[in-house]
Amino acid sequence: MSTNKKVLFIVISCFFFSGCQEKKQQTMNVSGLDQLEFSAWVTEWQWQSGVEDLRQVHGVHRAQVFAAYFDEEDHVYLRDKMDDAIAAMKKLSKERNIPLDLTIVNDQFLPNGTVVHKDPELIGRLVETPESRERHIDNILNYIDAYQFEGLEIDYENINKDDLPNLLQFYKELYDVLQAQGKPLRIIVEPNLHVEQYHFPTGPVYVMMAYNLYGSHSEPGPKANDEFIRTVVKKMNTLPGQPIIALSAGGFSWQHGSDETKPLTETEAEELAKKSKVIPIRDPSSGSMYFDYKDKYGKAFTVWYGDQQTLYQWIKIAAEEGQTRVSLWRMGGMETSTLEFLNKAVNYKASVRGENGMLANHIKKLRKEMNLTQAELAERVGIGRTALSKIENGAYYPSAKTMKKISDVLNKPIGEIFFNTDVS
């Protein structure tokens, strides 16, 4: 089906059969997500906004720095930006006590500047023999030790079927070495792999991707829908241990009549809709948003992306199927409303128990006692009113410097404002 026909079909289906909705705020009952265990990736090419987004979500179980690649000699290789990304994530990890993993992906950077993405031949060489696996493990451990990561994640995709037995043996040998050092191993598993046909070793934590239903390989559509997520969760049940389901934020833009596809963050998609003066429509079967637009040259595009309602729907479906361990690809370029949803969902149990005193505070009560508006207090503290509102509502984690300024203006000790858990 052509792109134009596909979009027309979806629009007709929505309005005549299921009733797509224009974007609007909907009530999200996060109490059903009280067992949610949340981890997330931050990428080296978007680490600034990724770290900032991750900072807005408390109670993160683990985080992964994406990624280490391979050079032309099959050695693990970090690009220049990776050092900055690791340093920033290390700082946040220390502040929040978030265990940090290094992700290694089978993308190979060649001397001529080209990149072989998800290279199956590379993995075939690395895991072919006991000797090659031992060399590869030693190479990995050098990076884990040098950067003092708390854990490791392997993201080897597009593997040749004949290499899978050797790869699974590699997972076992790598897990045994890491376990001796007290470090966990996560393994990324593609959703199209028939995992039930292979004997995956016990020990590693398996993370199955529940996205890429539509993407750069296909015509326009959502990254996932309800049926796809239910199928993935059922497949995960054949893996050993307690697997994790990986969901994806953001989306894609497809150019009509072309193979060109561009990934977009949620913020980029929303800004594009606003600039194009179009109102995104919600697809009920996936919870995703989509819209069509034309650029200044008259070229037509279709955009699909996820927002807070999309993630709520996907996480809720996974929870209904018994899967409450969620990893999000990826932080960065997310709207405030989505970060606020994630923060509430991840911290629901803690907030009910009054365990997370850092989210609760007495700013609003003390501000009103001084007859100050949010704008007046924000001006005295030296921050924006929106930022103060987020801090008051527990959706934003203030820096120590901002805490001190708020304490000075309200004339109360920091501990009395932020760490008193007796807050409704």
Question: How would you describe what is shown here?
Answer:
The chain is an alpha/beta fold and 424 residues long. The chain is 41% helix and 20% strand. The protein has helices at residues 3-18, 47-55, 80-96, 120-126, 130-147, 164-180, 226-236, 266-276, 308-320, 336-346, 348-353, 363-369, 374-381, 385-392, 400-410, 414-418; strands at 21-22, 37-43, 62-70, 76-77, 100-109, 115-116, 151-155, 185-189, 205-209, 244-248, 250-255, 261-264, 281-283, 288-294, 300-306, 325-329. It has an 8-stranded parallel β-barrel with strand order 2-3-5-7-8-9-10-16, surrounded by 6 helices. The radius of gyration is 23 Å and the shape is globular. Mean pLDDT is 90; it is low at 1-20.
List keywords for this structure.
single chain, 424 residues, alpha/beta, 8-stranded parallel barrel, 6-stranded antiparallel β-sheet, disordered N terminus
